[in-house]
Task: structure prediction
Amino acid sequence: MRALAITHVAVSMRKSDGRAFCNNKRVNVQAKCKARATQPLRVDRLGNTFLGDSRVMLRVSDIRRDSSRSLAVKTEAAVVDFKPESLTVGRQLGEGSFGVVYEGTLTKGTTIIDIVLKRAKPKVQGAEEMADMEKIINERVVKRAPGSCAQYLGSCQISAEDAKYLTPKLTEGLWLIWCLEGKMTLSMYMRYPGFPRELANPLLGQATLKGNTRLIKGNSPAVDLVVAQRVMQNILTSLMALHNAGMVHRDVKPQNLILVEKEKCFKLIDLGACADLRTGANFSPDETILDPKYAAPEEYVLPLDSAPDLASHSAPIALALGATSWIKHNPDRFDMFAVGLIMLQLCVPGLRSDVQLQRFNRELRKFNYDLMRWRRSRRFNSRETILLDEANGAGWELAQQLLSEVPKKRPAAAAVRYHRWFNVVLDPNLVRPAGERPNSVADAANGAMQEALARLRVLENAVVRVEATRTKQTSKLQNLKTEEKMDAGMSDFGIRIAREERKLEAIEQGLQKRLQVFESMSWVIQQMLFKSETQIKIAEQVSDTQVQKAADRLKRGG
Result:
C-alpha cells in the first residue's frame, strides 16, 4: 500500500508574457507577498452579504503581523497552535518543490492522535510564504466549510532555539497539522484492476451491501454504478461547502481526494491552490494554479480583463468586489470541469491513466468540447460505457454539461446532485452474472487488453518517477549554484556542485533508458490492443444480441 503524498504539479501562467511554465504549487510568491505587505490592511465588522449560492456572515476576528517576513496576515481563530513537545514526526509521506509531508503523532493529555504534518522546505524561495498562505486558507475552511476537506487541526511555529532541544526531524519553521483520516486516494484506487468495485466495501460498507440484491453480485456493473455515484456525491458535497464559502479549490483531481475511513467518504485535500474570493487570499488576477490534465479550458477562475485585485483593497471593498465577480463570472465552475473528467474516469476504464487522459483532452479540444462527437469517434464496447449509456445516456448528458467549454454552461455543484443520472439503477439480470460466459472470445480479448493497459501504466509510472527525481535534482543543483554566488568565499562549493552534476547526469541517463524501454514496449502493446479490439468488435455483435434478448424477456415478464 502506497503512502499518501500530498503533492501536485501545477502550471503557473503570467499575464505579462502569456507564457506557461511548470512548477509545483506556484511561483514568484515572495515578490507577490512583499507587494501585498505595502497595502494598508483595515478590519471592519461586516454584515450579511450575498455570495455564491447562500447568505453568509464574514467576521474578521483576528489580525496579526508577522514582522519577520513583513507580511500582513489575517487569521480566523478556529484552530489551535500546538506546542512542539506534543508532536512527534515519523516517516516521510511525500515531497513537493515547496514542502515535505510526514506522518506523525500528536499527544493531547493521555490521548495520542495520528496526524499528517507539513513544513516548508528550507532555503527554497517563497516556500515559507506558501506555508503561511496555506495556513490561512485551512483556517478559513475550518470555520466556513467544516467537514468539506481533510480535518485541519492547527499549526506549530518552532523557533531556532526550540529546534535545538527537539528531535532532528522537528526543525525550525511553521508546521501545518491535519488529522490522519486515511492513506488511500482515489488515484490509488484507480490503479486497481477491479476498480471501481474495489471500493464497494470501504466506501459503501457491509451494512449497505447486505440484503441488497443488485450489489451482491460482485462482478455486476450495478456495483460499479453505485460506487461511481457515491464518489461523485462525495466530491460534490465537498465542493458545495467550499463554493458556498466563496472559495475555489483549483486543483480537483483523484490525487487530491482522500478516502476518510471512519466516515466512508472522499474528501478534498491539499488547499495550496485554493483561492479565497471573499478576501483575495491566495488569488492574483494574472496568476493561475492548475494541473494541465484536469484544468478547465479558461485556465483562470476569473477573466483577466475584468478580474479585480482583491488583496489590494480593504476588507469591505474586497468582499463587495468578490461577490460581484462571483455572481457575474461563476468562478466555481472552474472546479466543475475537473469533476466532469473524474466522472468519465470513474465510468470509462480506458481513461484512467495519465496518458489516456491527456489523449482524451487533446481529442476533446479537437471536437470543440463536443463530448458526443468524441463518443461517436470511438467504437467502445457496450460493456465499457454501460454506466453512462443507461437511461437514454443520462451519464453522457451530465458529463457533456460538466465539460462545456463555456464556464456558465456548466452546472453548479448543488445543481449536479439532482441530475437524473444519480437515480439510474442497473438491473443485474441484464448483466452477465458470475459463472456464465456467453462470449469467451470477447472475454479473453478484453482480459488481454486490460493486462496490456496495466503493463503500460507500470512503465508510465516508472518514467514519471524518474522525471520527478530529475526535476528535484535540477532544483537542488540550481539552489546550490545560487548559494555559491551569495557566499563566494566558500571553497567547497565547486566540489559539491560537481558531485550534484554527476548525479544529475546519471539520472538523465537512467531516464533515457527507461524512455527507450517505454517506447519499444508501447509498440508491442499497441499491437496487442489492436488485436484485442478487433476480436472484441467481432464478438460484440453476439454480446449485444444476447443482452437485447434478456431485456425482451424481462419486458414479457420472464
In short: The first helix runs from residue 29 to 37. The CA atoms of residues 62 and 75 lie 6 Å apart. Confidence is low (pLDDT under 50) at residues 1-77, 431-440.
